[in-house]
What does this fold into?
Amino acid sequence: MAFDLQQLMAERAAEKFPLFDRYLNSQLVRVLKTIGYDVDYVKGEGPYLFDAKGERYLDLLSGFGVFAMGRNHPTVAAALRQVLDAQMAGMVQMDVSLLAGLLAETLCSRLPWLDKAFFCNSGAEAVEGAIKFARAATRRSKIVYCDHAFHGLTLGALSLNGDGLFRGGFEPLLSACAQVPFNDLLALERALAGNDVAAFIFEPVQGKGVNLPDDGYLAEAQRLCRKHGTLFVADEIQSGLGRTGRFVASEHWGLEPDMVLFAKALSGGFVPVGAIVMRKAIFDKMFDRMDRAVVHGSTFSKNDMAMAAGLATLAVMDEEKLSERAAGLGERLIADLRRRLGGFEFVKAVRGKGMMIAIEFGPPKSLKLKAAYAMLDKANKGLFCQLILIPLFKRHRILAQVAGHNMPVIKLLPPLVISEADATWIADAFEDVIGESHALGAVWDLGRTLAGHALKTRAGAA
It folds into this structure.
């Protein structure tokens, strides 16, 4: 009998969570059930998710930025069908790929100071490749990165992560790495002073917390790197491809990084693809002789499906003017959230660029609210966010999450295709739920339950 995927999925649909619990990550299943996120999604279209009951949700996680164009964009889907129908002779390892050449040309045309591209399968793999390219090009081993950084979870990328939660238990990591505070030029200059640093790898807008650089910080950081012979490497894996209102976030500060790293949204949400776009002089130091033509690579990196997805994604960005849309609608959403939420005691700040937005919370001034906030803060610094996020999800059908471990920040990464009505939906929902939190009503019963779970978990870990 021929294999029928749709029939298999229909027959086993009710087993989604039991199968994941039995054969994959049981702790993730526990988390989803604890906070009520164990929903049976059956369809994704644009910025929306639909469950088995027909309820529509607005997805502000976007697969951590993967679905910048929303889910199942017809242009990308059509391109992938064309690849399948063409029965192409892909991944002939003793050959080169036309589609890879076209995608490399397209990326380089958008970053005209860069000349070469290297493709891989993910953001973490792009970071791993950047470490190797930097070491090959400079003959130095040291890499400098920022606190609060997130660059991936493979061993080299993990060595550049600023959050101990991810690093703990996996040591020793790469030893030739040094952390400096984000926005601290004196610390960066001290780290570079020995002229032994291969690369400074940074996120123009940090994903964990949506931390924005101070005016002049990145331009001066670039100057310091040039002065000390250090490569200036922009991790645009989440902030790039229109997310902040420019093709890459680096453009906001007039930067010309030596390497720019892409992944996530470049896939169109279909086929994993990552890329490193760099100066020819860097590329040529890695691949400097014919016998080193394959000294670095990745088996699936230039597969036709991934390259077609990347090309179609960039075409859609141009056709639908998604960077411009993110800039305009994103800034209006940020302004609306500031206007509506600015009077609430728990809200410390609303910040962001384009459609990379953070709502940060902090201790209120009034004594009654301060005591309630302290209860959650003592259990976990990000726990107050769940007091907002759970009713946001349950009552308003908006999916969002905290911006990072142990921080009181909610991050919004809306698909760049959301409508004006969706932006109003977001602002209305946050105003309602945050307003309710100030009333110290029934929602704080949830808060006490969450605090109890967190304290019990901490005691068990100790």
Summary: The first strand starts at residue 41 and ends at 45. The mean pLDDT is 93. DSSP finds 18 helices and 15 strands in the chain. The chain has two domains: 14-69+322-461, 74-319.
